Every structure is written in C-alpha cells, then in structure tokens.
C-alpha cells in the first residue's frame, strides 16, 4: 500500500464545492471528479482526502489531497497520467509518495487563502466568476487597519456563517494583508484553520469598513461578543482561492 500526496489546482466555478455530495442531482464536486479519474486510471476504488472542503464556487491554486493505492506506477509519472483523465478545470500540479501516517487535513499546520476584488465602476461580463466586483471609493488605509485588527488568536464565531458544526471557534490568524494594484485589491490571509465562510466574512467586513458602512471599532466588538449580525456581509465565493497548505 502506498500513500500519495497530490497538489491540485481547480476552477471551482462549476462545482458544488470540493466534498462529494449525497444528493445525486447536485452539480459535480471536485472530489468526485478526482476519484473517478484516479480510480479509472489505477483500476481500483479510490477515496480522496483533502486538506479542506472548499465551498461551491471557491477556487484552489494549491489544494492538497492524499489517497492510498496498490498501483506501482512511478510517482513522478502519476500526475501526468491522472491529468489525462481529468477535465480542463481540474489539474494535478505534483504528486509524491509520503508515509502511510500522512493525512492532508490532520497533518496541516495552516492555510493561505487569497481573495481578489475588482474595485471599479466599470461593468464586465467576463471573468466575474473569478473575482468580486466592488465599485465605489474605498479608504485603503482604514482597510489596512481593519486587517491588522483581525490578526491574532481569537474566538471567531462572529465571523462564521450559521450551519457550522464545530464546537471550538478559536483560531489563529497569523497574517492578514491587503494590497492594491490599480483597480485590483488582493487580500492574503494566513491562519492555522478557518471556520465556515470565515475568510469571506472577514473580507466583506473590511470592505464595508472601507466603504464607511461599518466603523473600524466593530471588529473588536464582534471578536468580543461573537455576534455574526454585527460583522459585515459575506463576500461572494467567486473571489476566494485556497492558495497553499502548510505542513511540518
């Protein structure tokens, strides 16, 4: 038995998230596509385990998965072989053999998410599934201050959507930063773990502060009181990318 770790890139636009769904009427999931491709190549039932369950419409530049196999296909040829069986919007960047104890989620130390905002009054029908168009003047300095306030170890329940099944809402955000490139705003968030819609709510809150819809001091209030309705809107899934996962 071998344990294969793979780094996967995907366009989440047409997928109902990463995790396989019980309802057969749902649109495809990334997990199902990967399992079908890998299982078809290796001629054996395959279960793919991910570092995180990205939601419907969320993209990945560096999702990490692992799967077990009896196949003896050389690991340096495995990524290319699997890619021949995948649709164009899912692509395996690399594969490596790891210890049988490795687990893509349980062994992860943290993740890096990136969020892309197009801050322009211009309207376009192209590429909207890859960013969030947020028009109007924004206070960049205020948003940078808001990002800093979201860093640290806190109870982030107020930045979590209803429906989460976790019992512990304490997470550590090592770094949150925003940079501007013309009309583009790029948010980078590093943390040891994230709650349901946490990054999207954080970004939505920072944008609302930049727009003047929320005061800067609302962030410590939400962190202290854990009240979701006090925070900003949930930014759309279209702008969110899982950029990388960190391991020991």
Description:
The protein is α+β, with helices and mostly antiparallel strands and 248 residues long. The protein folds into two domains: 2-98, Pseudouridine synthase I, catalytic domain, N-terminal subdomain (Alpha-Beta Plaits, 2-Layer Sandwich), CATH 3.30.70; 110-246, Alpha-Beta Plaits, CATH 3.30.70.660. Helix content is 22%, strand content 29%. The chain has five helices and ten strands, in the order E-H-E-E-H-E-E-E-H-E-E-E-H-H-E. Strands 1, 2, 3, 4, 5, 6, 7, 8, 9 and 10 form a ten-stranded mixed β-sheet that branches. Strand 2 (49-50) and strand 3 (59-69) form a beta hairpin. The longest helix is centred in the C-terminal third of the chain and has 14 residues, at 198-211. The protein is globular, with a radius of gyration of 19 Å. The model has no long low-confidence stretch (mean pLDDT 95).
Keywords summarizing the entry:
248 residues; Alpha-Beta Plaits; 2 domains; alpha+beta; globular; 29% strand; single chain; 10-stranded mixed beta sheet
